[in-house]
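BUG: 3D viewer hangs when loading the predicted structure for this chain

Environment: internal workstation, default settings.
Expected: structure renders.
Actual: progress bar stalls at 90%.

Input used:
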Amino acid sequence: MMNAHTETSDAISEMVPRVSGVPQVSKEAKATFEKSKEIAALLVRLEDHFEETENYRRFRTRIFNVLSMREARLRAGKSELKGAVLIGPAGAGKSRIAKEIIKEHNTLTEHAGDWQFGTRILSVIVPGRSTVKESLNAILVELGHPARGRRDESYLANLVMEYLKESRIAALHLDEVQDSGRYKTKDSVEAFLKVFRNMMQHKDWPVCLIMTATPEARHVVNLDEPLRRRLRPMEMRPMTFEDDGETLRETLMQIFDDAGIVDPGILSLEEFMRILIHASVGRFGVAVEMSIEAIGECLRAGEGVIDMGHFADAYEMRMDCDDELNPFVAEHWAAIDTLTAMQRYEEKRKVERRRPK
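Structure tokens produced before the viewer hung:
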């Protein structure tokens, strides 16, 4: 006679088959697992898509100009250089813009034999709440020469310049500059700016300074008037339907096509495009991210035609909001304060970058 314990054990054995004592997963679990991997790989590939926007073209012109002027000035024996700063909200696509411009510049100059003073642009993410020493060491790490032992700022700054010259670096790109300066006191920020201003006027190997940062960095740059004049900050303007709707539409059409997703016509609807721009707070990069997340919702549901519901689900997952605060659901979507929602979302993400105190 079987007791209750034996019956339970038999039931579990039927649910999880074993071969030589090793549990075997069901076909359904395996299929779900493989589908998840396939969708994840596709979504990551879609993130590689890049569209040349007006902000991109403006900043590219600025960077190409300052690097060409560097070469010309150094040939003429003049060492003081200029730089460039791109300021825009989180998710606007600043870092991606800089990455694509750097890639373009490196490609264009790779086989140009008429550049005497280097062409390479080194990109470094400024560590969250970093001191000057920590920022300098981050540069050394990117150069492949991390500092050993306890060193002061002067030693590290000289070491950075030595390796920048050795590697023939023409420009230094600092990303997330708004995080510079431990606790952002006036003294800590000024010390940070002084080090990098000196790099632009180094007597042996001056480099151009390129920065990308959120609007919080305005006060950082404005603390040093000579540096501000050299960098001439460029602000990314938010998207509008009138100016950017068509570019965004064409971008999403390409992404949908790459994903094998059918658009039943939502991209041709003016209201949908306006809702997406409002939901993304006018940030091109965020609008693309939201669209890729909506594609993920569509594919995970086993569907091939994307609709407003998939965008609504993606927005809910991202913002953790109710229907009345979801622009893709609410009737009076234009009245929703999507900026405040985005700021809460950014604060949650910012915590991940913060260093322990």
